[in-house]
Write the structure tokens for this entry.
Amino acid sequence: MTDAGSLPDPSTFSSGVHGTVAGKRGALRRVADQGLDAWLTLSGTRRRIARLAARAPRRDVLVATVFVPESRCIGPTLDELRGSRHHVRVAAGSTADLREGKFQNLRQLLADQEPADWTLVVDDDLRVPRNFLDGFIALVEAFEFDLAQPAQTLASHAAWPSARRVPFSVARQTNFVEIGPLTAFRRRAAAELLPPPPLAMGWGLDLHWGALAQEHGWKLGVIDALPVRHEWRPVGGSYSAADAAAEAQRFLADKPYIHAADAGRTIEEYRAVPQ
């Protein structure tokens, strides 16, 4: 929180990197992702996650997404999520009909929705792995996370380094969870954080969530063993970074938030699937 009448410096709420992966670096990272995916199978991690998911309680899951009409990812992603053993409700809206910013649009989508055990806010430019939701819900509940995200592949566009998968890790407890490309809210966290404030771009909102999580005693985490692919649209490619920073300055001026230099800190790393 800043002094009255002052605005926070962008360095306190911005990662300072664009996170775009392309060219030879992208190709090398995709090879590394393939190796880590093979490890998940050969080590038995996928099998243990499937067993955990099969005995986990069935939950009511609300999936909220705002998509551009030309998105090639959102259809397959929603199909995969709907194929879960959980009860999945989808609140989806096209930018052809919802013409404001991301979080302003999400407010409209969530306004009339009944609370769920888990609410997932999903961007329209990611792909999730097969059987993602069953394993994800089982793991976030086993690790007792209240606010969580799946890690992104090494080849994904990710502004925050902590968002990318950590090799040979199942999950990490952190002090920070991003606003996208997929954010999961347990019921008690959703009651406090959703619908989101009427922001267009939302820079700094996740840092504010981190501060609120500390106040409430919530546990935040990243699931490394079920990484999503966010490889098609560079971070912040559809809006002005200057406008996003200015919006964040106004929003955070009178609110607590985690400093960017500390965001994504690992509190505990888990290398085994809970049994």
The radius of gyration is 18 Å.
